[in-house]
TrEMBL record:
GO terms for cellular component: cytoplasm. GO terms for molecular function: ubiquitin protein ligase activity; zinc ion binding. It is an enzyme of class 2 (transferase). It comes from the Eukaryota. Pfam families: Sina_RING, Sina_TRAF, Sina_ZnF. Residues 62-98 form the RING-type domain. It catalyses: S-ubiquitinyl-[E2 ubiquitin-conjugating enzyme]-L-cysteine + [acceptor protein]-L-lysine = [E2 ubiquitin-conjugating enzyme]-L-cysteine + N(6)-ubiquitinyl-[acceptor protein]-L-lysine. GO terms for biological process: protein ubiquitination; ubiquitin-dependent protein catabolic process. This is RING-type E3 ubiquitin transferase. It comes from Daucus carota subsp. sativus.
Length: 324
């Protein structure tokens, strides 16, 4: 957001350098993992992210798109295989020998795939599970160990990784403000609030309760007029996000708006959260009323806090745990 002035007051200075750790996974070290079938185990040497040569895994890799193949698996008269999606891409010509593909199914390879059990592709990130070949992809789409996408939405950043890596990435590459503490007090000033481009925004990262939270404040066009929105995202999975709550408040001239909710996980995209309006929304007329003066300059003060819900074992209800 083209904000002329921003003030942020937090409970302490910033995130200490030793709180952020890079996770490096060596790519030149060979790993051994079991490739199981119903009859026996085969040990295959592998470099993370690179298919081992002459392995069953390589045989099941489409030579065109390099994705794992699932039935129907097609083959040419010379025995070269490819997936059904790429069969139409290559205009029914084998990409290896240029023979016409026809409608030959490689039933033997389909049977081999059916008998395999493979580790999740995120095993180097900590996933310990092994799955039948045909259910492996379904698991990987929701695996808790899969990398997170960078929550810095304004640049459509393609970086992904674990949480410590993304925190460092936001601080070093995007120059995002980092603050420690579970309360915040932001003042947003804009000289001409009517000049609002779609999806202009600000991002601040907060560290509390041993977790990281992304506070978004932005303006975007809703109908004929811009609105201002603030919301919080949790840097972790949805199940863990539900352990926390937050509140936001904005006001002026004897009026105020408040919002209380549960932070959304960064597994949900920035656009998905914004378009769901799951946060504090301030219409332009109300924002100018809060700003006071001649209603020509935007001056909004947004305050808030984050707390952790704790289970009361005696009463069976959640009680807030406020940080000091």
């Amino acid at each position: 957001m083209d904000i002329d002035n921003i003030e942020c007051v937090s409970s302490s200075d910033g995130i200490e350098d030793d709180e952020i750790h890079h996770h490096h996974h060596p790519v030149n070290q060979r790993h051994l993992y079991p490739l199981k079938t119903h009859n026996k185990n085969i040990i295959i040497g592998s470099v993370p992210g690179i298919a081992p040569a002459t392995s069953v895994h390589e045989l099941l890799e489409c030579p065109v798109c390099t994705n794992s193949m699932y039935p129907p698996i097609h083959q040419c008269p010379n025995g070269h295989t490819l997936c059904s999606t790429c069969k139409t891409r290559v205009h029914n010509r084998c990409p290896t020998c240029r023979q016409e593909l026809g409608d030959i199914r490689c039933l033997a390879l389909e049977k081999v795939a059916e008998s395999l059990e493979l580790p999740c592709k995120y095993y180097t990130l900590g996933c310990p599970d092994i799955f039948p070949y045909y259910s492996k992809l379904k698991h990987e789409a929701v695996c808790n160990f899969r990398p997170y996408s960078c929550p810095y939405a304004g640049s459509e950043c393609a970086v992904n990784g674990d949480i410590p890596f993304l925190v460092s990435h936001l601080r070093d590459d995007h120059k995002v403000d980092m603050h420690s503490g579970c309360t915040f007090n932001h003042r947003y000033v804009k000289s001409n609030p009517r000049e609002v481009e779609n999806a202009t925004w600000m991002l601040t990262v907060f560290h509390c309760f041993g977790q990281y939270f992304c506070l978004h404040f932005e303006a975007f066009q809703l109908g004929m007029a811009p609105v201002y929105m603030a919301f919080l995202r949790f840097m972790g999975d949805e199940a863990d996000a539900r352990n926390y709550s937050y509140s936001l408040e904005v006001g002026g001239n004897g009026r105020k708006l408040t919002w209380e909710g549960t932070p959304r996980s960064i597994r949900d995209s920035h656009r998905k959260v914004r378009d769901s309006h799951d946060g504090l929304i301030i219409q332009r007329n109300m924002a100018l009323f809060f700003s006071g003066g001649d209603r020509k300059e935007l001056k909004l003060r947004v305050t808030g806090r984050i707390w952790k819900e704790q289970q009361n074992s005696d009463a069976g209800v959640c009680i807030p745990n406020l940080c000091s």
